[in-house]
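Final report, section 2: Outcomes. Of the targets proposed, Multidrug transporter MatE is the one most frequently requested by collaborating groups, and we therefore present its record in full.
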Amino acid sequence: MLVLGIPMALSSLIEVSSYTCMTLFIGRPGAVQLAAHQIASNLGAVLYIVPLSIAIAALTLVSQKIGAKKPAAARTLSRTGVSLAAFSCAHVIYPS
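The predicted structure is given below as tokens.
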């Protein structure tokens, strides 16, 4: 567990720290620049987090199907997960 958990925790720590440091550096010029950075940061987070969440959920379902020795169902679920993640990202970029 630690072999996988420690690198994942360090990756999250670096990501969160970089966002925090950038906010502190950009906060010096003024409120307008800070607000613009926050908007861009939130858009980046949505574009990153929503497909990542879908991928994690799909990974769990695919792993269960592989463990149950159902490769056809796993393949279908993996394609559905990729399609859903791509659609969610495209929907954020090009809202209807």
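The chain has three helices and no strands.
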